[in-house]
Write a structure and sequence with these properties.
With 938 residues, the chain is an alpha/beta fold. It has 6 domains: 3-123, LON domain-like (Archaeosine Trna-guanine Transglycosylase, Chain: A, domain 4); 133-236, no CATH class; 294-344, no CATH class; 478-617, P-loop containing nucleotide triphosphate hydrolases (Rossmann fold); 624-719, Helicase, Ruva Protein, domain 3, CATH 1.10.8; 730-937, Ribosomal Protein S5, domain 2. A 7-stranded mixed β-sheet has the order 18-19-17-16-20-23-24. A 5-stranded mixed barrel has the order 1-3-4-5-6. Strands 10-11-12-9-13 form a 5-stranded parallel β-sheet, sandwiched between helices. A hairpin with a 5-residue loop joins β16 (737-743) and β17. α19 (624-642) crosses α20 (654-664). The termini are far apart. It binds adenosine-5'-triphosphate. The site of adenosine-5'-triphosphate (ATP) has 20 residues, from α14, α19 and α21.
């Protein structure tokens, strides 16, 4: 074996340089300078023996040099700026061949020696033999397998390509080159340190190939197995399972710690038993008990669900999941709250749970006693209920009684059908039990569906009550109460519920923009929950409540949060609502037993399909007379009770009440009136309380009687200055100003002036006051009509003259006040004509006159809507003469109360000319003679 002397370069652990490999490493100043001297002294690049240190620096023993190392060529030595001052040089080495250290008494070296480069004797192994064919083949196979695995596992394409390239090379190399290839591959793949060291220490080519083969097989297997494990773990260990696993461990650790604490702390330092570990019960145990009770309650509720029903299946599934997931985890909380919701929905045919002994009265819904629907007096009672709650509204009450009668009949039929079905099933079950020859379990149909219930023959037959037959829904019409605020829509709904003995729940839809508010959020959504319908059902506690969908006209339009109106369609459609799908509950809910009643202030914003499903019941405003009755019989007693006073404590005189109704409120309904009466009652309540205090203290001032009567003159002191006091006096007669009749956005009728003025200009018309297209067109139409008849009305002296250009060119500005409110519709046509005529002729329309009606170009007056509201509004505004289209006569006769008809003058007109005459008075406008002929021809 050839020997020589080579400078030894110790490679710090875990560096190894194998033959045919290259690397660069940092070296100390001393080593760097020595290598520099070597480079300077030798002609070619110097050779060093790179010997690895086999033990890590952390071990408290001296570094041990490996017996084998690699003779390496120093390719480069650089001293880059800004390097670690302890290792300022970088040396690049290229491994050439194996060398073995000889004549070394001990392989342990001092740390100082490591900072030096010493010359040592080394020997070179003999020339390598060509390995056997078999060893070479095995090596190639194992190397190819490993390279294939590495290529598959690497994420970077460039790496993949690199591995594939080496694999191709491997195919082509001769057997003699395989030992060299083994060194190359072991040096370049990320293997274990000891494997590399073993390869370095195996100079025999055959043995080295075998060793490399084993290493490659081992590496490929590890890689494959870890890949498999990673995939398996990823697939099977879902997040919850990982969490479960970790929590189990945590619990186990906690248990061990507790045991340790108990054993060390069971006796305190003075030898007495430690309180904390004495095993006595603490409030923490109460928590655990409460938790166990809650779970038991949940379980009971699931068990009470109808066997075989969708809700029960879902409940059981989620219950099982809940059991698998550790308490305290997020997922556990989510499932728990879902189950609480699921079990609190009043599913039909659930076995009623026994009421808890300490029932919370505030939380449970207030159920009125269920009236016997078979009772002959049901309708009489219902009528009495409606009368007791509401004054007037005769037509509406009549319709509601019809509605209640239909509901009653349908309910009776549904009950009868359900009873027959139950009997049939009972009989079938009995027959099956009698004929069944085989003992044991027999399949028994529980209901006509495909579901079967396992039934044990040895036990008694099912009691009739436990046979669940779903009662058919009562598909009555859906009522839609439309009318101005405070006219009793909501309270009528409440009365219906009382009359039917069903729980009542109100769902306010005003401002609902998101479909999910009705249908609920899916459970994947953070903080998800059920929608308004399910929430109301839960509060009602029964599957057949009366649900009042309040303000359906205020529901948001379709937007990127979905279409809440469309969700309502499903709720209200009797064909679909037996399987309403709340996204959160995710089990079809049968809403067919629910009676839906909707309310709205106006029909304009309600979608046609929604309207189509409802029967509209119009409620209009009340007359002052009705308001007085309502106030005396309903509102005042209600407010007295609400404020803890007796009826004898407050007496509001008739003139005072009328003043409150007329001067302090001006609304279609009675809500503000109720509020004002409430304010009066509260004022009196304070007086009474003070009086009682004085009496208690024996104060002589208390002898002065506490006056219970509220007089008209006291109102200003109590309610402040009246808002509508003398409003009609402010309506002065003015040229170009005429009062029209309108229905506001909330469905309230009233009067609105049409104001016009003439300005120097070029004959143009300017329209302002938030006007829509239709009302603008009406304005232009009215002006065209006036221009056409300007000559006949003596506004111009020739038919060819333009009324806005002769004698002076003018512009007309027409304005409708209350500019913030959007106005539209054709019904102001007549009013606008009168306003233009008044402006151009100088004649005025009296302020006690108001009008409505659409006009055509030919001068006809056509009918308009909202007559009842408009007339009531005019009455409230103390208008005494109303001009209406001829075709609206029947509306006045049918809808307007006789006392109003008696108090007001109604003029029904067919043409604009008739309207002008009615507005200005007979003969006020000077018509030319020939105009009369033309008018009659039209
Ligand atoms: N005809 C009536 N008889 C007795 N009380 C009435 C009558 N109409 C309305 N009320 C009372 O007026 C108050 C307001 O009525 P309610 O809340 O039903 O109005 P609403 O029409 O639903 O209003 P909104 O459109 O603003 O919801 C209630 O206290 C109600 O009892």
């Amino acid at each position: 074996m050839a020997t020589s002397k080579l400078p030894i370069l110790a490679l710090p652990h875990p560096l190894i340089l194998l033959p045919a490999s290259r690397f660069t490493m940092p070296v100390s100043k001393e080593i760097g300078e020595t290598l520099l001297t070597l480079i300077e002294e030798s002609d070619a690049l110097p050779i060093v023996a790179a010997i690895p240190i086999t033990n890590p620096p952390s071990e408290p023993v001296l570094p041990v040099l490996s017996e084998w190392g690699t003779a390496a060529r120093v390719l480069r030595l650089v001293k880059p700026p800004a390097r670690n001052p302890r290792q300022p040089y970088l040396v690049s080495l290229h491994g050439l061949t194996r060398v073995r250290l000889i004549n070394l008494s001990t392989k342990k070296v001092n740390l100082e020696d490591l900072q030096q480069v010493h010359m040592r004797d080394v020997e070179y192994p003999p020339t390598e033999q060509v390995p056997s064919r078999e060893a070479a083949q095995k090596f190639k196979q194992s190397a190819l397998r490993l390279l294939d695995r590495l290529a598959k596992d690497s994420l970077q394409q460039s790496r993949k390509d690199g591995y594939n390239k080496i694999a191709n090379m491997l195919d082509d190399i001769t057997d003699a080159r395989t030992p060299w290839m083994a060194d190359v591959l072991i040096g370049s793949v990320n293997g274990e340190y000891n494997d590399k060291l073993a390869i370095l220490g195996t100079p025999d080519s055959e043995a080295r190939l075998q060793l490399a083969t084993e290493i490659f097989i081992k590496q490929a297997s590890i890689s494959e197995v870890s890949k498999k494990i990673a995939t398996a773990v990823d697939e099977s260990l879902s997040k919850q399972q990982k969490e479960f696993f970790l929590r189990q461990q945590l619990a186990a650790i906690q248990r061990e710690l507790n045991v340790l604490q108990r054993s060390s702390g069971s006796l305190s330092s003075n030898g007495t038993p430690n309180d904390a570990s004495s095993g006595g019960s603490s409030e923490l145990d109460d928590d655990e008990q409460a938790e166990a009770d809650d779970m038991a309650e949940l379980r009971r509720k699931i068990e009470a669900m109808e066997a075989g029903s969708e809700e029960r299946k879902m409940g059981v599934r989620e219950w099982r999941r809940l059991k698998r997931i550790p308490a305290g985890s997020v997922e556990n909380g989510v499932i728990r709250s879902y189950l609480e919701w699921l079990t609190s929905v009043p599913w039909p045919n659930s076995t009623p749970l026994p009421l808890p002994s300490t029932a919370d009265s505030s939380g449970s819904p207030q159920l009125t006693q269920l009236p016997d629907l078979k009772d002959r007096s049901f309708l009489t009672t219902a009528r009495a209920q409606l009368d007791a709650d509401h004054f007037g509204l005769e037509k509406i009450k009549k319709r509601l009684i019809e509605y209640l009668a239909v509901v009653r009949l349908k309910e009776l039929n549904a009950e009868k059908e359900a009873a027959e079905e139950r009997q049939r099933i009972e009989a079938e079950a009995k027959a099956k039990v009698d004929t069944a020859a085989k003992p044991g379990l027999v399949e028994q149909p529980a209901k006509p569906s495909k579901e079967v219930v396992l039934y044990d023959k040895s036990q008694a037959p099912l009691p009739a009550k436990s046979i669940h037959v779903r009662k058919k829904g009562v598909k009555g019409p859906i009522l839609l109460f439309v009318g101005p605020p405070g006219t009793g829509k909501t309270s009528l709904g409440q009365s219906i519920a009382k009359a039917l003995g069903r729980p009542f729940q109100r769902i306010s839809l005003g401002g609902v923009r998101d479909e999910a508010e009705i249908r609920g959020h899916r459970r994947t959504y953070v903080a998800s929950g059920p929608g308004l319908i399910v929430q109301a059902l839960r509060k009602a506690g029964r599957s057949d409540p009366v649900l009042l969908l309040d303000e359906i006209d205020k529901i948001g339009q379709s937007n990127f949060h979905g279409d809440p109106g469309a969700a309502l369609l499903e709720v209200l459609d009797p064909e679909q609502n037996h399987a309403f799908n709340d996204h959160y509950i995710n089990v079809p809910i049968d809403l067919s037993q629910v009676l839906f009643i909707c309310t709205a202030n106006s029909l304009e914003t309600i979608s046609a399909p929604l309207l189509d499903r409802c029967e509209i019941i119009q409620l209009s405003g009340y007359t002052y007379d009705e308001k007085m009755h309502i106030a005396r019989r309903f509102l005042l007693p209600k407010q007295l009770t609400a404020n803890g006073l007796e009826p004898s404590h407050v007496t509001i005189t008739e003139p005072a009440l009328l003043r409150v109704a007329t001067r302090y409120t001006q609304e279609a309904g009675v809500r503000s009136l109720e509020r004002s009466i409430g304010a009066v009652v509260r004022y009196k309540a304070v007086e009474w309380a003070e009086h009682l205090d004085l009496v208690k203290q024996g104060d002589p001032a208390a002898r002065k009687e506490c006056l219970s009567v509220v007089e008209e003159h006291e109102l200003e002191k109590i309610l402040g200055i009246a808002r509508w006091d003398g409003e009609e006096r402010e309506r002065e007669e003015r040229r170009g100003v005429v009062y029209g009749l309108v229905v506001m956005g909330q469905g309230e009728g009233g009067i609105l002036p049409v104001e016009t003025i003439a300005l120097p200009g070029t004959g143009k018309l300017k329209l302002t006051g938030s006007l829509g297209d239709v009302i603008k067109e009406s304005g232009e139409l009215a002006l065209s009509w006036v221009k056409m008849y300007a000559y006949d009305l003596c506004i111009t002296n020739s038919r060819s003259d333009d009324a806005l250009k002769v004698p002076e060119p003018i512009d007309i500005h027409l304005h409708l006040p209350a500019g913030a409110q959007k106005k539209d519709g054709p019904s102001a046509g007549v009013t606008m004509v009168c306003a233009f005529v008044s402006l151009l002729t100088g004649a005025c329309v009296p302020t006690n006159v108001a009008m409505t009606g659409e006009i055509t170009l030919r001068g006809r007056v056509t009918p308009v809507g909202g007559i009842k509201e408009k007339v009531l509004g005019a009455h409230r505004a103390q208008v005494t003469k109303v001009i209406l289209p001829w075709a609206n006569r029947k509306d006045v006769e049918h809808d307007v109360a006789p006392e109003i008809r008696n108090e007001m003058e109604f003029v029904f007109v067919r043409t604009v000319r008739e309207a002008l005459e009615a507005a200005f008075g007979k003969g006020v406008l000077g018509w030319r003679r020939d105009a009369l002929l033309l008018e009659s021809r039209l």
